[in-house]
Specification:
CATH topology of the largest domain: Rossmann fold
CATH class of the largest domain: Alpha Beta
Helix content: 25-40%
Largest sheet: 6 strands, parallel
Strand order of the largest sheet: 5-6-4-1-7-8
Number of domains: 2
CATH architecture of the largest domain: 3-Layer(aba) Sandwich
Length: 394
């Protein structure tokens, strides 16, 4: 497929100030970065800019602050960036303003300046034109490499892109190409594995891939909405009430599609949501009162793994159970191992699926590991992302 947008590879950046939107929305624990995956994912584009003599001005959001919050400053990110690049990354005290402007003027060829948390500015999430203009005034060129924020029409993702020559970063382009290819040019059989808590989060993907996939395998807490829709007792399992209606719709749509919508055949139950819960296996799918389903059972895990082993293309989004609790991690681990060993092309999206693969030491064994949660879902649903649409055409 053709990406269709201007690439940073073709941008004239030597000696020019480049405002690069990155997704450094990383987990912080006591002021320290818990996982730097998103920072490292931006390195190829950043290194390309530095090699070509660009003066890089980086901007990202971090969490959801309500105004300025020193606990959500980008300073830990600047420190980690400095380590990764082997040279100092200076930290601006704000996103825009006279002091920031003066600092940007002092950035030399190949140097990097990190602006403060973009959501310290109330105009960021509103795509405020004044904030976008102030950001555009800092730079000559705009590069968007923040796929994880590309589904948001914010000042740093859309507003500023409309005011400067706007290019896609290497990560953004690769994300769009890899995720789009799953729907547009998959090798069959195409097997889609969906987990997580809410049917409502995945309904758009289910609806689209019922027309595209050979099979959709359902796991995670969302399976209980399907069971409830079929009148199967779910005990104390997590059930999304809106999801019951949506699950019924999906089951009806599946009957007239060429896609097999598969639900778990057995479960692992717990008497509470905790690692110390009493645990038992259920050979069927009925959950008695006082118990909750916390993982797919071993028969289901084997069946899902077998389907994955025969797939030409695999898309996985969402864990099969409460994998963060070791007694209930077996189903997700089995699926992760199957995806890692699959002979076909494997694409994994969603923060929890990625975290599971990393936790099991399998992240390097899949073909594409997406950095975007909501953005990857919207793209898989077939929507055009605002942050991509705003970029210059190729």
């Amino acid at each position: 497929m053709s990406f269709g947008k201007a690439s940073v590879r073709d941008a004239d950046v030597a000696g020019r100030r480049v405002l690069m939107r990155v997704d450094f929305n990383v987990p912080l624990e006591d002021g320290r970065i818990g996982d730097d995956t998103r920072i490292r994912a931006a390195m190829p584009t950043l290194e390309l800019l530095r090699e070509r003599g660009a003066r890089a001005l980086l901007v990202s959001h971090l969490d959801r602050p309500k105004g300025f919050d020193p606990a959500l400053s980008m300073r830990p990110v600047a420190a980690r960036l400095s380590e990764l690049l082997g040279s100092e990354v200076r930290q601006a005290p704000a996103v825009v303003g006279e002091e920031v402007r003066e600092m940007t003027q002092g950035v030399g060829d190949g140097e990097v300046l990190l602006l403060e948390n973009s959501r310290f500015e109330p105009g960021e999430t509103k795509n405020d034109p004044e904030l976008a203009r102030s950001l555009a005034d800092l730079a000559d060129v705009y590069v968007d490499d923040a796929f994880g924020a590309a589904h948001r029409a914010h000042a740093t993702t859309v507003g500023v892109a409309e005011l400067l020559p706007a290019y896609a970063g290497l990560l953004l382009q690769a994300e769009v190409e890899n995720l789009t290819a799953v729907a547009e040019s998959p090798d069959h059989p195409l097997v889609v594995i969906l987990g997580g808590a809410k049917v409502s989060d995945k309904m758009g993907v289910i609806t689209r891939f019922l027309d595209l996939a050979d099979s959709i395998l359902i796991g995670g807490a969302m399976c209980f909405s399907f069971f409830r829709a079929r009148g199967i007792p779910t005990g104390d399992s997590l059930v999304e009430e809106e999801g019951v209606r949506l699950a019924a719709e999906a089951l009806q749509l599946a009957e007239s599609s060429g896609c097999e919508l598969r639900l778990p055949m057995d479960l692992v139950l717990g008497d509470s949501f905790s690692a110390g819960a009493e645990r038992r296996k259920s050979d069927g799918t009925e959950v008695p009162d006082g118990w909750m389903g916390l993982d797919i059972g071993p028969r289901t895990a084997r069946a899902y793994a077998d389907a994955v082993s025969k797939a030409g293309t695999v898309l996985w989004n969402g864990p099969m159970g409460a994998f963060e609790l070791e007694p209930f991690a077996a189903g997700t681990r089995a699926v992760a191992e199957a995806v890692a060993a699959a002979p076909g092309r494997t694409v994994v999206g969603g923060g929890d699926s990625v975290a599971a693969l990393q936790g099991f030491g399998l992240a390097e064994k899949v073909d594409w590991l997406s950095t975007g949660g909501g953005a990857s879902l919207e793209l898989l649903e077939g929507h055009e992302l605002p942050g991509v649409k705003a970029l210059d055409d190729a």
